[in-house]
Recover the amino acids of this structure.
């Protein structure tokens, strides 16, 4: 990996993929011959997996859910009951097609034409690689990895998906949201000139906590509270803020060459919050020396902000997941204002477009590549804040540090364990930096 440029890394990963994964002929059809039903398997039966399956079933395609997989039986049962209550005849999951455990994904994938991957993101690279190895189309949630070796694994699998002509959609749904599509098309067409700076935000009150139970092993506790452990989540800069970081990369049409920033645990400091920070502030520097400022935090009782804005040589733009998109020139004159009335739900639109392509036997979507590189941007940002260093993109790609445990079993030990009082070690910038890159 020495001295690789960003574009060279993509090319190199594609070459590596040819020898690293099992090969097969490109698929000529989307699903089993003699049937017009698209069989779907859900891997990861949490709230997001259930929601993604609802969105797939709402796409209008002829779909049946035929398999469910999750590490926890109670998660699987809850999702099955929720889906069955709403969709009834579209849920055809017999008891022997309900798979529980760390290896459950392998069996569920075998039964499907399309796989929805919605486990905690630490498992995404392995599950994605297996789905592509088995020749399945994929919808996978963001982010697609939590460490740099995981990103490399996804890039290799993405190259194999291209070779097999397998559609892959990543749940960065702003890419399928009309106001973003229309505004960014105009930006790329030169409506406001060259982008010189920007600001992207995800500031909110944080997410759930699930109290520890006496009977839980450490592995189960961390799995139940996956958001607070980097081997499962990647920290909220990766798991959540990846949406806004992806917009920065999309608007710029490239990826940063270096990242520096700061972060800490200032508000959510209890042992129940594992090892993650509650705030990050980054500068993403691109090859043309433009800088995008990135901010995310989990503070309760504050003003929330989730949006993006950019400045350019001829004007500026404001974007929001709420449907807003306005372009101005520097005299304040509106160049374009998006009308969000009647726009499709982007969570459903990404599934609609995926299943339309599959139904028609078309190969149209290779989202895994940009999903991987926007995930990588967040990971490098996390490393920059944890270490207090400026991290260069090409140097970061040399990292071989894997966050996940060597063994996945309920009685196995994760790499990070609590101290005698139940607290987990938290990154301290300037100290033990070799742990992070």
């Amino acid at each position: 990996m020495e001295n690789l440029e960003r574009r060279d890394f993509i090319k190199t990963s594609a070459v590596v993929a040819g020898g690293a994964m099992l090969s097969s002929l490109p698929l000529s059809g989307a699903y089993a011959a003699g049937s017009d039903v698209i069989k779907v398997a859900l891997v990861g039966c949490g709230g997001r997996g259930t929601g993604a399956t609802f969105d797939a079933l709402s796409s209008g395609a002829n779909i049946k859910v035929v398999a469910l997989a999750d590490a926890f039986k109670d998660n699987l049962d809850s999702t099955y009951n929720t889906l069955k209550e709403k969709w009834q005849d579209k849920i055809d999951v017999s008891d022997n097609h309900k798979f529980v455990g760390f290896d459950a994904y392998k069996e569920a994938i075998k039964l499907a034409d399309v796989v929805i991957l919605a486990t905690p993101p630490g498992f995404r690279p392995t599950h994605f690689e297996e789905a592509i190895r088995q020749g399945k189309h994929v919808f996978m949630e963001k982010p697609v990895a939590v460490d740099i070796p995981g990103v490399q694994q996804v890039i290799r699998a993405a190259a194999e998906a291209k070779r097999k002509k397998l559609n892959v959609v990543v749940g960065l749904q702003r890419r399928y949201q009309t106001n973003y599509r229309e505004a960014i098309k105009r930006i790329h067409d030169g409506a406001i000139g060259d982008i010189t700076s920007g600001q992207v935000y995800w500031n909110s009150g944080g997410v759930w906590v699930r109290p520890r139970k006496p009977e839980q092993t450490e592995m189960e506790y961390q799995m139940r509270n996956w958001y607070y452990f980097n081997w499962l989540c990647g920290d909220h800069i990766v798991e959540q803020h990846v949406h806004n970081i992806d917009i920065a990369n999309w608007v710029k049409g490239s990826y940063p060459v270096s990242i520096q920033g700061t972060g800490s645990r200032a508000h959510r400091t209890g042992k129940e919050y594992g090892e993650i920070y509650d705030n990050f502030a980054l500068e993403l520097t691109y090859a043309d020396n433009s800088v995008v400022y990135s901010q995310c935090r989990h503070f309760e009782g504050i003003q929330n902000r989730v949006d993006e804005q950019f400045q350019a040589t001829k004007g500026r733009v404001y974007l929001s997941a709420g449907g807003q998109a306005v372009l101005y020139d520097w005299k304040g004159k509106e160049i374009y204002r998006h009308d969000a009335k009647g726009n499709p739900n982007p969570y459903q639109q990404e599934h609609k477009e995926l299943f339309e392509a599959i139904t028609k036997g078309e190969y149209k979507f290779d989202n895994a590549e940009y999903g991987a590189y926007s995930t990588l941007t967040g990971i490098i940002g996390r490393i920059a804040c944890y270490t207090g260093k400026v991290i260069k993109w090409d140097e970061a790609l040399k990292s071989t540090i894997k966050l996940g445990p060597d063994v996945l079993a309920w009685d196995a030990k994760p790499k990070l364990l609590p101290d005698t009082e139940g607290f987990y070690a938290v990154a301290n910038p300037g100290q033990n930096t070799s742990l992070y890159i």
User: Anything to note?
Assistant: The first helix runs from residue 6 to 20.
